[in-house]
Write a structure and sequence with these properties.
Radius of gyration: 41 Å
Number of strands: 13
Strand content: 5-15%
Helix content: 40-55%
Structural class: alpha/beta
Number of helices: 24
Strand order of the largest sheet: 7-5-8-9-4-10-11-12
Shape: flat
Length: 646
């Protein structure tokens, strides 16, 4: 019997549930094989062979480390020439101190191992091969790891904040520079002090009137009275200044004073804008809320997703900085770690190492996973978050920031009590902060709609109440609104393809929309404080104002990264329709020309059907269209037939 036949026989025995042949029977098999070869040697040429076991080298196989593996060769003589009939590489380690005749039998797997291997699916085999072993954990890394940071200079929060507010800085800085140049050139030409006092007083009065007119704390009568009071007070100031200080009043040059007023306004808005930059940057630096779950709740279109993207982006930069720092500390002590050979320490080093290598091998936003596409200004994107990541099936790197927009649609709340389709996310949300050091931000209009296993471990719920665009370029907005009105009003005549002008308008609008900040008023409630939503919005807001629990968050009008806030539109099936279906309403009853008999299409019951059966014939005599009457009769007959069958 040949070497291959022996293997096939052993495999067939193991697959059929039989135990492998004992080691003592192997020499008997070889004796019978020799007898058979002697009988056949009378008819054929002489042919002898033997089995030789040799150790394998590492380059002879694909396994990487082949220590202890053997090669089995069949060698023989035929017509006086040496030949090698077959080679076989066994994937099982050699059993020490076992005779060569028994080694072949002992290499074969047991019946239980073969049956367990066959029960594994293809995906399970992939997972099985993906488990680290001791050799992989002890693998040394290069002394110097050279890589390019995937974020470039944008990994610094301050640079990201400056780039997010670059257009606003230009918009508020250029007028101030021109005003200062004008002031320098005209400083000696006119009396500065009287004109400056007049300009400051006029500016303060103008700002006061503007604040009163735009305030919501006064009714219309109070606003008019206060504005009249300020105007009378300003007139008295001019009259008193001219009467009691005629010499100083004569030094006032009105064109120069008006320009000083514009300079004061420029300095005021310039200072306000740059103060907002510092406040926003400080809030970004303190945005990290720890390794917990946080839910952003509030009404639709109030700024939950934009706040989530802004906070998630800046927190991811902090996590990436921490990951790099940990990689430096562990990589510097690699020799000591390998010498200690502590499995827990090796696994921890492996976790940091593979997370760092995962991010430097691709151009991405490090430490950021999201279920909606996120991309920064350079086209660098975040990684896609899947439900299997939340279940623990797919591995997430350490120091991960997880963003889940519309978490109620991703993890359905009603499945929290379902025994048929439960979500296996309890362990990840409960213990992810321990073994992943992650933080999760989820957006939902009502945080009571969050999946129960997530809601139980939420660190805090941030409820957004309002969003306001502050430091916006009012003058540019008015000019652009006029351009929009002019273009849209002329479209009923003809639409001409002007590619250049369209691109210019798009760039102008983007420039305007990127100036200023989003002022968001929110409050923070605990994990169990869900009863506040039962109050009406006005009452709820008054309670919060009394308790002084309102907070303000400023983020740039053009946040540091773009996102697709229409990610769920592809789930809308009619989104792909070629045509739009729509039908105009019939004439109003008020014109006296609508004589169609409209039946009740909401409810159907036996009582209503009897009522209609009794009155439809009389209603038809009032002069309704015959088509309508025929339809009514058809409907009545169908209803009667249905009732008869029931």
């Amino acid at each position: 019997m040949s070497f291959k036949d022996l293997l096939k026989k052993d495999e067939s025995n193991s697959s059929a549930g039989e135990s492998p042949a004992p080691a003592e029977e192997v020499p008997e098999v070889k004796e019978t094989e020799k007898k058979a070869s002697k009988k056949s040697s009378k008819k054929k040429e002489t042919k002898t062979e033997n089995i030789v076991f040799e150790p394998l080298n590492a380059e002879d196989t694909q396994y990487g480390s082949t220590c202890g593996f053997l090669r089995a060769k069949r060698r023989g003589e035929e017509r006086g020439k040496n030949f090698v009939i077959d080679n076989f590489c066994s994937p099982y380690p050699r059993v020490p101190n076992v005779p060569k005749s028994r080694a072949l039998t002992l290499w074969q797997p047991s019946n239980a191992a073969v049956a367990a291997q066959r029960r594994l699916s293809e995906q399970q085999l992939i997972w099985q091969n993906n488990v680290v072993d001791s050799d992989f954990l002890k693998k040394e890394t290069p002394k110097v790891i050279t890589s390019q940071n995937p974020m470039g200079l944008r990994r610094y929060l301050f640079i990201a904040a400056l780039k997010a507010n670059a257009n606003g800085m230009i918009y508020y800085l250029l007028p101030l520079l021109f005003n200062l140049i004008f002031l320098t050139l005209n400083f000696t030409m006119f009396a500065f002090v009287p004109n400056f006092i007049f300009a400051v007083f006029t500016t303060a009065l103008t700002i006061g009137v503007w604040k009163i007119a735009s305030s919501q704390n006064f009714n219309l009568i109070k606003k008019l009275l206060l504005i009249i009071f300020f105007i009378v007070f300003y007139a008295l100031y001019i009259f008193g200044h001219e009467t009691f200080y005629p010499e100083n009043f004569a030094l006032i040059h009105y064109p120069f004073a008006v320009k000083l007023i514009l300079i004061i306004f420029g300095i005021y808005y310039f200072g306000k804008f740059y103060a907002m930059i510092l406040i926003s940057y400080h809030q970004d630096c303190t945005a990290d809320f720890g390794n917990v779950v946080q839910i952003y709740a509030g009404a639709p279109r109030i700024g939950k997703t934009s706040s989530m993207v802004q906070d998630g982006y800046v927190i991811a930069l902090m996590k990436w900085r921490q990951l790099q720092y940990d990689m430096y500390l562990w990589h510097s002590r690699e020799r000591e770690i390998l010498e200690r050979n502590d499995e827990d320490e090796l696994l921890e080093y492996h976790e940091i190492k593979i997370a760092y290598n995962f991010y430097i091998m691709r151009r991405c936003i490090p430490c950021l996973f999201s279920n909606i596409p996120i991309q920064d200004k350079n086209g660098v994107r975040a990684h896609e978050l899947e439900v299997n990541h939340l279940k623990g099936v797919y591995r997430l790197p350490i120091y991960t920031v997880v963003l889940i927009d519309e978490i109620g649609a991703v993890l359905k709340a009603e499945l929290g009590v379902s025994k048929e389709r439960p979500y296996d996310v309890s362990d990840m949300f409960r213990l992810g902060g321990h073994f992943l050091k992650w933080c999760v931000i989820g957006c939902e209009q009502d945080y009571n709609n969050v999946y129960i296993d997530c809601r139980r471990v939420v660190g805090q719920n941030k409820i957004f109440l309002s969003q306001e665009w502050v430091c916006r370029p009012i003058l540019l907005l008015k000019i652009f609104a006029f351009l929009q009105l002019f273009l849209s009003d002329s479209m009923d005549k003809r639409i001409v393809r002007r590619r250049l002008s369209a691109k210019i308008l798009i760039k102008i609008e983007r420039f305007i929309r990127s100036i200023g900040f989003r002022k968001k008023i929110y409050t923070v409630v605990g994990n169990t404080q869900t009863e506040v939503l039962s109050n009406t919005p006005t009452k709820y807001l008054n309670v919060l104002e009394e308790n002084k629990r309102l907070k303000v968050r400023y983020i740039p009008a053009k946040i540091v990264a773009d996102y697709d806030d229409r990610s769920y539109k592809q789930a809308y099936p009619s989104y792909y329709d070629k045509e739009i279906f729509g039908r105009l309403h019939q004439k109003l009853h008020i014109d006296g020309k609508n004589f169609d008999y409209v039946r009740n299409y909401v409810s159907e019951s036996k009582t209503l059907n009897k009522k209609r059966q009794a009155v439809d014939s009389n209603v038809a005599r009032l002069g309704f269209k015959q088509d309508s009457c025929d339809k009514l009769i058809d409907v009545l007959e169908a209803i009667r037939a249905l009732n008869d069958t029931k």
